[in-house]
């Protein structure tokens, strides 16, 4: 039997359409089966996998894993000063925990507790003060105080020196150390007339320094050990 070109094309198109729809039907039947098999495998894996340490803890205790507490300060004898940044954490009371800066008047403010003195205290002493204030609000309060940034330990050199400015205060630093750090005197400085302004809560105290005598060892008592917020004035 011989087909015309038109009959041959119609027959081929019919076969192609039939093959296409049969393939589509087979794919539709295969997809749900594959999805069911994957889900079954996942459930089997989850069932056989060991529980993590966190899951074991939660199943055993029935409580979520407790939050981590910050470490205590490395130097418990450090004396807090003005402008220091303090991280105050009240255990399980996040709304009362704060990062605060010691104000120029030496005080800090916490929610519900108001303002109170922090300047001049060690972190441990400040912890005890906060615990005492919290006892009427919280059962068995647990407080930690960490000095996050030390900003109070500095001194100033002003006047006729090469590099006037504010400098970090190291331990056992003296007048001689400070002048050397500031680059020495300018040509028209009067080192015999220099003095130190030392800050106290009730004001500042002026301490006269005769630098040439200090340098010669004739007035060792004037080679003061510097304190935080001292200001050395060189006229």
Would you kindly provide a written description of the structure presented here, covering whatever features stand out?
The chain is built from five helices and ten strands. The protein folds into three domains: about 45 residues; about 60 residues, wza like domain (wza like fold), CATH 3.30.1950; about 80 residues, Outer membrane lipoprotein wza fold like (Roll). The strands form three sheets. The protein has a five-stranded mixed beta sheet, covered by helices on one side. A three-stranded antiparallel beta sheet has the order 2-1-5, with helices on one face. The N and C termini lie far apart (about 125 Å). The chain is of the alpha+beta class. About 10% of the residues have low confidence.
Structure at a glance:
Helix content is 33%, strand content 22%. It has 235 residues and is α+β, with helices and mostly antiparallel strands.
What layout of secondary structure does this protein have?
Layout lengths: L4 H44 L4 H9 L23 E6 L7 E4 L5 E4 L3 E4 L5 H12 L8 E7 L4 E6 L5 E4 L6 H7 L13 E6 L2 E6 L2 H6 L14 E4 L1
Parallel strand pairs: 6-10
Antiparallel strand pairs: 1-2, 1-5, 3-4, 6-7, 8-9, 8-10
List keywords for this structure.
235 residues; alpha+beta; wza like fold; Outer membrane lipoprotein wza fold like; 3 domains; five-stranded mixed beta sheet; 5 helices; 10 strands
Estimate the global geometry from the Cα principal axes: elongated
Q: What name goes with the CATH superfamily of the largest domain? A: Outer membrane lipoprotein wza domain like
The level 1 CATH classification of the largest domain is Alpha Beta
Number of domains: 3
Helix content: 25-40%
**First-last Cα distance:** 125 Å
Q: Estimate the strand proportion.
A: 15-25%
SSE string? HHEEEEHEEEHEEHE
Total beta-strand segments: 10
Largest sheet: 5 strands, mixed
Which strand order does the major sheet show?
7-6-10-8-9
Could you name the ranges where pLDDT drops below 50 across 5 or more consecutive residues?
47-74
- What is the typical, i.e. mean, pLDDT? 80
């Amino acid at each position: 039997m011989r087909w015309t070109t038109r009959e041959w094309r119609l027959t081929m198109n019919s076969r192609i359409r039939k093959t296409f729809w049969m393939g589509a039907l087979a794919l539709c039947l295969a997809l749900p089966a594959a999805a069911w098999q994957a889900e079954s495998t996942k459930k089997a894996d989850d069932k056989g996998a060991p529980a993590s340490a966190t899951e074991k803890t939660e199943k055993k205790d029935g409580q979520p894993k407790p939050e981590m507490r910050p470490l205590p300060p490395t130097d418990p004898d450090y004396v807090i000063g003005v402008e220091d940044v303090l991280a105050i954490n009240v255990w399980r009371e996040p709304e009362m925990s704060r990062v605060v800066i010691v104000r120029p008047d030496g005080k800090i403010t916490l929610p519900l507790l108001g303002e109170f003195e922090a300047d001049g205290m060690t972190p441990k002493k400040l912890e005890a003060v906060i615990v005492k204030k919290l006892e009427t609000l919280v059962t068995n309060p647990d407080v930690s105080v960490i000095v996050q940034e030390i900003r109070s330990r500095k001194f100033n050199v002003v006047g006729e020196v090469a590099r006037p400015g504010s400098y970090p205060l190291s331990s056992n630093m003296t007048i001689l150390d400070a002048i050397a750090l500031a680059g020495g005197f300018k040509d028209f400085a009067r080192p015999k007339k220099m003095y130190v302004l030392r800050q106290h809560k009730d004001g500042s105290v002026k301490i006269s320094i005769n630098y040439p005598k200090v340098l010669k060892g004739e007035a060792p008592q004037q080679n003061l050990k510097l304190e935080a917020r001292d200001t050395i004035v060189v006229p």
